[in-house]
Amino acid sequence: EFRRVLFRSNSYRTTGRLMRNRVFLALDVTLAISIVLLSFAARFEGFSGWPDGGRSALLFIAFAIPIKIAVFYRIGMYRRMWRYASTSDLEVLLVAFFVGLVTSFGIGVAVLPGLGLIAGRIPLAILLTESALAGAAIALPRLMLRVGARRVRSLGMSDRRSRQRDATEVARVLIAGAGDAGGMIARELFE
Prior knowledge:
Blueprint: H1 2-8, H2 11-18, H3 21-43, H4 55-75, H5 87-114, H6 124-167, H7 180-190
């Protein structure tokens, strides 16, 4: 009964409307800043042990986050419909992760010390932690939206199937076409 109420409440439509790419942009910026601060706090075991009073963390945020967001935009992270994510969208996430990793290391190891803004490089442990957490932070909200949309669709389909069984109506479907597209359509119909 709960499933029927959930599906009839149109919450899946509301979620789709709320999770626009501008929301992902804001989420990416917020999570990226939080991840940098968390990485520094983890490396120096708290906020009080940071060298330069956190100046290097703030400089890293000021340089790395805008560049990463611009790169993500250029890659196409904010032009996709993540509710319908496919394998090619996962490839975009992987490319974004690796480009973000290279950007973090480039800024932390070469740019900030090269410009003389910090005395030495950002510690590698911070860069590794930040890159790994940033990869998870850009992928998980998008994949959760995809999984949630799929679950809502499957709940709706099971609701329709139970109504069909009650009415003893069976709709036959012919899928014209072969290969991956036909298989994808069949999977969508059975979910």
